[in-house]
Amino acid sequence: MARTREDDGTPVPQRLLAAATRLFAERGFDRTSVQEIVEAAGVTKGALYHYFGSKDDLLHEIYGRVLRLQQERLDAFADADAPVERRLRDAAADVVVTTIENLDDATIFFRSMHHLSPEKHKQVRAERRRYHERFRALVEEGQRSGVFSSDTPADLVVDYHFGSVHHLGTWYRPDGPLTPQQVADHLADLLLRALRP
Fold first, then answer.
1. What are the tens digits of pLDDT across the range 103-129?
2. What CATH class does 12-51 carry?
3. Helix, strand, coil % (nearest 5) of the chain?
4. What angle do CA 167, 163, 18 make, to 5 degrees?
5. How many of the other CB atoms lie within 10 Å of CB of 33?
6. Which residue(s) pair with 173 in the sheet?
7. Taking the CB of the first residue and of the last residue of the chain, which one, N or C, has fewer CB atoms within 10 A?
8. Average pLDDT over residues 38-59
9. Which residues bind DNA (predicted)?
10. Burial of 49 (0-12, 13-18, 19+ CB in 10 A)
């Protein structure tokens, strides 16, 4: 059986994911070999295949871990006992911050999603749809109650915000003039201004 921990205590799956993330970000998914990943992680191919069936599985997990975090946080915001405007703003800002904090993961995924197997691609699309539907439900709740304008369809509002989120990797730089929270606040405020009655 593959060793599950290295001397520093980091579990092998996390080491493999960290190595794959770094290499996919630097070289691209299609230009990174399994051998390069296992060498960077300091494990054998057997260890990789013990935890991940393929390089495709690593790519799927890189995206999945961020989406699971974001879904869990969105559910907490959506279920909070707060006005819908506050819940939507918190959720809109949070997806920006968590995307920036995991920018390599998000960039790799959007650049490499087409490399996933059809089955995994379908699964990821379903997971993203669930997230977007929960976010859209907040917009619709505010529109029904009159807190938000219903002039713009909720689907378009969601696409507008997530279009901005999905392009963060093309322009955001950690050494730039704005912190992740400042970018999040600006984008969340833009969203709420677009929804004002």
1. 888 888 778 888 888 998 899 889 999
2. mainly alpha
3. 75, 0, 25
4. 45
5. 12
6. none
7. N
8. 93
9. 33-52
10. middle
Report d(CA 138, CA 80) in Å as an integer: 12
Q: Tell me the domain boundaries of the chain.
A: 12-51, 55-195
C-alpha dihedral (111, 116, 121, 124), degrees to nearest 10: -70
In terms of C-beta density within 10 A (0-12 exposed, 13-18 middle, 19 or more buried), how is residue 59 classed? buried
- Which is it for the CA torsion 59, 112, 72, 133, positive or negative? negative
Specify the pTM. 0.86
Tens digit of each residue's pLDDT (9 = 90 or more) over 70-112: 999 999 999 999 999 999 999 999 999 999 999 888 888 778 8
The three-state secondary structure class of 11 is: strand
Rounded distance between C-alpha atoms, residue 129 and residue 52, angstroms: 25
Tally Cβ neighbours within 10 Å of residue 26.
Answer: 10
Q: Which of 27, 25, 2, 6 is nearest to 15 (CA)?
A: 6
Kindly report, residue by residue over 142-182, the tens digit of the pLDDT: 999 999 999 999 999 999 999 999 899 889 999 999 999 99
